[in-house]
Amino acid sequence: xxxxxxxxxxxxxxxxxxxxxTPINADRLNHMEAGIKSAADGVKAIIDAVKDEIxxxxxxxxxxxxLYGVNKKVGTDALPEGMGDLVRGITxxxxxxxxxxxxxxxxxxxxxxxxxxxxxxxxxxxASSQSPLGTKTGDxxxxxxxxxxxxxxxxxxxxxxxxxxxxxxxxxxxxxIDEDGEPxxxxxxxxxxxxxxxxxxxxxxxxxxxxxxxxxxDTEDSWDFADHQLDGMxxxxxxxxxxxxxxSFYFVAKYPGVYNDENIVSSISxxxxxxxxxHNGQIGMFAKKGTxxxxxxxxxxxxxxxxxxxxxxxxxSQVTMTxxxxxxxxxPATVIENDVKRIIISKNNAKNLVVGSYASxxxxxIQNGTVNTDRGNxxxxxxxxxxxxxxxxxxxxxxxxxxxxxxTAFSTDTVALNDTLTSPVxxxxxxxxxxxxxDVLGPDGSPxxxxxxxxxxxxxxxxxxxxxxxxxxxxxxxxxxxxxxDTCSQTPYIVNDNRKIANNKLTDDYVKLDIxxxxxxxxxxxxxxxxxxxxxxxxxLPIEATGSSTxxxxxxxHTGKRTTSLREFLxxxxxxxxxxxxLRCSHLNDSxxxxxxxxxxxxxxxxxxxxx
Length: 612
Prior knowledge:
25% strand, 9 helices, globular, 6-stranded antiparallel β-sheet
């Protein structure tokens, strides 16, 4: 049934006895029945069209009703006859359109949800207060957001309104970026064509473009957001085109970078992370996908930061969701077995492991005359490379059997590395795979424990912190050491077009930022203050590091050795970074060419402009 067929109901008047002019008879009762059925059919038509998308969340019905409104308010096309699924209908229409009309259609749909929302969050500068806690303001003041797991759904007030649901929780979609940098939605979660496994392309979270202002002074460093233009506000930089116009929605890749079946970097679930990603190396890696693609950008980094700030008002991100940042274990076999897909280790060690997480099975290698077990060497992954831990069970009073999803059976016998050196077989914990947060019941949370330090998490549907740094594509750090003064500092440079990301050098396409990153003298220090450049107000790079794990931003800065060189920007934290990790963690230690085993990637696109 089409909603157009829902009939207007003619109300009838009734009179009490002894008046006999309004008798209860078949005509009167059938009139009521027909009206009730027409209304029920209309409601059912909406529910049947969107039931897969709302997934038991009644708060999304208004949003999907707005999608139906696109049929009436956008262009002259009607949904294809017989197309009961509204999402499929919109997608079918878009396939028939040329150029960017599909993006415009979806832009109209996103814009239909704007209602005048305006809220923010205020944080003190470190000199005013060392607390990482902020205060929510405006329409955000009374908003409560809680994390979820695969078994417990937390409260999320942003889901109560379609506008904030789209701004802060997002819409999970399949899509692509065209050669001009425009996002295209091809399917929405809940529609038949949608897939997370790569069979329908990349998976993104699509968000309504907000307007924002970063308030930066001697006393505060705060955010102000709205769903509409206000004085002093600009559209989110991730949605601004190079000509100064902006899109009504923007994409953030849902998953970290993996190779699809064609060996092209993708944002899909169920694949092993691409390891060893350097600044230089990722240029060619993403170019194979298309000139419109690149690795994760500083805009994506800032998105995660302000999203966490707005939702939880706590700049110590690990207090809310720790990520896989304290899960770096290597345990030797305690019992020798042959032709197995398990390893026996001590019970004391096994209790630290998480079933469903990932590990490699292998042995050490010789370095400088001794046995080393660094995960960067292939020997450590010889028998099984980053495979799932399937189960753990008692072996005897002192040992446990850890079963892994190994491709072939192996032996846990000691391995001779040369005539004198041997190595036991080890289990080494590794990175989680994309998709392991798919069963989390809300937009924010971890599979079973948000703060164990052993699991990745989703923030607004985007999976993060799988146990590896992400190499940022659009920032190069210039480290300068003054031997006379014995001082060292780093200056960040930024590029606005991914086609101009430079290999191992700075070019005229890069812009020098008005930010100076302090020297940490090859050690970790905690960030206490972030800089501000009015041309790039979203950027939050450290300019002071006098905090702690519980004060300031509570995340670490490491600038490496004091040398004059170009450095890559590694963000987030790895398996063993513990409290130094987090959404402000900045590892600025390595050359542009270095790709460690814990340096990974994320799909993005960069055609950044300045809003007109």
